[in-house]
Amino acid sequence: MQSAISIQNLSKHYADNQALKSINCEIQPGELFGFIGPDGAGKTSLFRILTSLLLPDQGQAKVLGFDVVSDYKAIREQVGYMPGRFSLYQDLTVEENLKFFAGVFKSNLAENYYLIEDIYQQILPFKHRRAGKLSGGMKQKLALSCALIHKPQVLLLDEPSTGVDAVSRKELWEMLHKLKMEGITILVSTPYMDEAAKCDRVALMQKGKILSIDTPTNIIKAFPHTLGAVKSPLMNPLLQVLKQSKLIHSAYLFGENIHVVCKLGIDFVQLEQELISKGVVEWQYQIINAGIEDCFMELMNK
Amino acid sequence: MEIAISVKNMVKKFGDFVANDHLNFEVYQGEIFGFLGANGAGKTTAIKILCGISSPSSGELMVAGYNIYKNRDKVKKSIGYMSQKFSLYDDLSIAENIEFYGGIYGLSRQIIKQKTAEYIHELALESYEKMRVIDLPLGIKQKLAFSVAVIHQPKIVFLDEPTSGVDPITRRQFWEMIYREAANGTTVFVTTHYMDEAEYCNRVSIMVDGRIEALGTPSELKNQYSASSMEEVFIHLARKATRID
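^ inputs. structure came back:
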């Protein structure tokens, strides 16, 4: 099967900032693929290259078999792109924006309306409002509608969940799973590590490099340590003791727990003895499975 | 316990729209208070009022011991503020930013010099010293912005989504800075969309459609809603929202 997206040794720099450092990645048709990483990982540069809006310095990338440099016209017809920053026409109404984007792609509202119905219905009461006057959540729904109205084969969403509350994020991912059922290949970037679990496969990115590419399950399986979740009524003092302990490989705050990895050859019984000797009595631990964020931090430290 | 913020029946209307609908809560001195809510729930409106940049339509408000109607300037001197969107000036260097904020808060030249040396050492900024802030990695910029927001040792610091987009290790280092600041007695009033960070707060409030729907320690709220995480509590409350945002 031909890859939907094929990225080979792709590099990009701005002045002395190396935004992408020889990236390699293959994405299959129909995959929901996540690029997970903080700001500065290179996610936006990568998406802009894949949508032919930015030229790479080196390497090659193909979208649906088309080269991002030489076949840019073909790519632009086939992909839908929602940038991180709101980029619709602020002075056009909701409906005018949607009609405009349908027209640009030689489509019309009726043809693919079924694709956007779920999202667009929520902003339908505001169809005569100018896009610039919409709230953040509504802007995002309109932007997603506009990116979909020509039924693209590949949809690229750059940080659609950033700054969005937990409920709207949940709805967004439900929406993406529906679109996947339509056979659309979806690339999503996000700084939220927990969203990796919603993707078929993910690339963990940091400072222009891909740290790991795999299914979320396999990335978690590859976590090389025994992980303990430690709890105490006084979390921060415990964290400070743990961080200073010579038995500890890593100790990170994780919600109501501290996630602790002991050094090679040390187990939690030994750690318990050390903590007791330091006067820390009120604490409990439980061995747990790692999450994507544990894996990401482990890879960052390599 | 000393009260840092006291809000009674606070209402803020924009025309017919009630952005804040009778808010009631207190925040204690030295507490880390998580101010959560769905997009459009009215958090930003409330923070602007508490910082003295917007006036409430009605209600009684004390911030850092001052009445917000009568002593707005004193409130402003007693608080610090940072957000991801606005923190430092991109086109100034690290030292220039520190000098600028120190100057605004009326610190002496000597103290500003001392603070500059202190921050550069503590945050290991030696190699970035000459750079403009725009060229700093986001994580470093956010840590510096936090330090600058508390340069005048305010009673309360407001942090509006301070860790948005920051890598997971830096995010945790940032929370350790918050813990240290709170341990020194500063009240930390913080908003976030990371639900794991809600667990790091002493107490949390959750706003839905302009009202505070829940307020308590993370474990109280999880018990109250029989939830295993703050994310579950949040989704349970916020999905009832009727305001479209």
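Chain A has a mean pLDDT of 93. The interface with chain B takes residues 37-40, 122-123, 125, 135-138, 162-170, 191-193, 206, 235-236, 239, 252-256, 293, 296-297, 300-301 of chain A (CB under 8 Å).
thumbs up if we can close this ticket
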